[in-house]
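Researcher: Please generate the 3D structure of the following complex. Treat every line as part of one assembly.
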Amino acid sequence: MRRAEWDEASEFPYKQGMGSLFCTLRRHFRRGLAFAGPGAIGLGAVIGVLLSAPAAAQTAASPWVDYDQGRARLVSATENAAGELVLGLQYQIAQGWEIYWRSPGEAGFPTTIVWDGSDNIADAALQWPRPDRFEIFELETYGYKNDVVLPIAARQLRSADAVAIRAEVNFLTCEEICVPHTLNMSLDLPAAGSGRPIISAHAPLINQYRSLVPSRDGGLGLTVERAEVVNTDDGQLLQIVARSQTPFVAPDVYVEGGEAFVFSKPNFRLTDDGKRAVLQTRISRTVLASKDAPPLLGGDLTLTLVDGTRAVEQTLATTLGQAEAGSFLPFVAILALAVLGGLILNVMPCVLPVLSIKLLGVVSHGGGATGPVRRSFIASAAGIVFAFMVLAGVLIALRASGAAIGWGIQFQQPLFIVVMTVIVTLFAANMWGLFEIRLPAWIAGGAGRVAPEPHGTRSSFASGVFATVLATPCSAPFLGTAVGFALARGPVEILAIFLALGLGMSVPFLLVAAVPRLATKLPRPGRWMVVVKNILGLVLIGTAVWLLSILAFQVSPTGAYFLAALMALTVAVLFVRRRLPVGLRPFAAGAVVLLAVLSFATPQVGNAVTRAAENDDEIWQLFDPDAIPQLVADGKIVFVDVTAEWCITCLVNKRLVLTRGTARDLLHDPNVVAMRADWTNPDERIGQYLASFGRFGIPFNVVYGPVAPNGLTLPELLQESVVVETFLQASGRNLLAGGS
Amino acid sequence: MAIKKLVWPAAGILAAAVAVVLFVGLKPGSENSGGPRIEGQVQNFSVANRPTEATAWRDGQGGKVSLADFSGKVVMVNFWATWCAPCVRELPSINRLQAELAGDDFTVVAINIDTGGEAVAAPFAKRLEIANLALYLDPRGTTSRSMGVNVMPTTVVFDRAGNEVGRLEGGAEWDSPEAVALLRWFIDNKS
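Model: Done. Output below.
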């Protein structure tokens, strides 16, 4: 059972388990490629590493020490020693072998280093990147496989002298057998003296793994709220409630402190749009547990909460809690919820018009033969299911490529929302009888042209697809639970649950197909139809307004107003058009087309205005990495913001942190130089700059200062306190005291 | 003509078949070799015949113990540690083996190599319910090193004279029929 889970994990990175660490890195890399265009950045980074590697292998690294199941060496992020030392113990582990985390789980022991014989080095401390779970002989263990670097923070004692590092590295590696090893490594670093530290070729790698060390200050927008012991009918559960500023992907938690207990991989459930996670794991005593071990309840636990690439560490006391209601349903129940959620989607504002229009289409044709009606509704149902399957496929592919996924991701694309708004508005105009032109067949299917000819089936199919696309941003009761469950698991679950959603949503269509009289026996078209159509038109306008509100958040309120104005104008033109002489009407039609085309400019308009209004453009200089050393030497503090239009998190950082409060004041300080690198389009220099920090994705922010000439990187999701703290660190003094 | 063309391929196939038969026939552990039968749980057991240089270890009370103390018996020395998952996995089967096979001709000696010594090993052994196995300790790893052990678990079998007759690196179900048969072979054939 567990083994099957591993296998999936290695294929799909968001799953915890074997190879996940490796996948995390691969994901970083892929993301870089995907965002920056495959050519420039990826190749540039690779070439950069290749060029610098041979020389650096001699310096800043000990020789590799081979052991039977791999090899290891010490690496340094700097070629010389200048105070703080950033080192790493780099392992390349043979396939299948594990080394252990600081808490090994039920068996194993972590790497320890004895520094005897070292000179001029102090306070050496191993840091632990987030581990993965492995099961060895039914014992739960935490550790690393394949390649890993354990970062080491240390300090040079006397700045004038070289540093001699002598490390006796003790560690255990296990597969089906365990082999303890003791390896001796030595690394010498010359003193930088009054010179500056020289970054070595190993710096990116060490930094990569440093970024995987769980943060202790919650700077990643990830916090554990409660750790509770819950008594249930079949034993105790540990229940952990966590929050995230951005939706969770697949949270996992490693528990330390209850030595007598073992906690397997928790189940989790997401609520609040995926921003709140409840994790539950069964509490069982380990074979190691002594009977007089302290009880779990009331004791302190250290929790390492991991989600995607983020990991935080928190220590808190356990309390007695109640099990979260409705949690952790079996798969069948989730499938049932998915069917129900799909069904309810039909009456949500975004889809209701589609179903209603379809029914009206039947009515307007005055009922008629049941055969075509039946065929048409079955085709629509098929279209719905088809669209859900395509959606599932896309989500699976995106997930495999490491993108953050969720329900309705296409609604992150402003242009998509614009197109939807235009279509919905035209629909409304159509309902109000403002315009007679038939829409293209693929859309008109939605308007219910249930023609008796065969291609009516095709357009009905298209209308089903359309209904699904419209439905995606709409959350319905139960839908969130089902989709959250699916996305947190494997492709099979995603397919199954999306199939269930599709079937659920097509139930009304199938119902009509089964009993066509439901549609054909509606009253003959008449005055009532006009009223109903007018109401539906209003509902559609409501949908358009809702789409605009999304747009306002995604792009900017200005962009939304722009589009709203265009749409109002469109409706007005259509209204006037009917009163124009016939000869002039084509001009009106042309105007409508023009307005529709213009609406595609909405994202640009929105962005342009946003830039002017929100970005404090005047303070931002063009990105010029070569100028940074001189600026720092002049006593300036340099803030670099690598951003891009497609980067949602960058936008969040901009809106919530950089243009507000103390962070804004800091950026306006005369002593601060703010540089912005726009990575919207591939740019080799920016890509290489990122790679030099071991990053392949953005948002990316760095603060340079007299104390930090090489820059201090900030977490991806900015927080005011962290930004301020980093500024202070980089400046080595209290900037605000004398400034604003 | 056509037949001549087939001669060489046929000869080749024949030669390959002979090679396979020879290889299978001579494989150590098969019945023909005259040694013990090595299969199943103990298929990785490697037969040896060498005098031991094993140093002494300690019992739970701190007393020195060595192979000489078991002279006259076939001795199965198993090295284990609390941090070693495969060791923890196989210990219960070794405990059952001891119950089944121990006597005048045979005993198991399970030596813990945790650096924490008795304080770590004793409570662990108690909870693992392996009461048939006396607690022996080698916290500095001197005994295990003297026996050339660098993989955990390793199980070394000695004949009645204290010569090593073979070892298994890795875990096994030691009370499985094939493991018991292997040990019985040494009991019966090594006087």
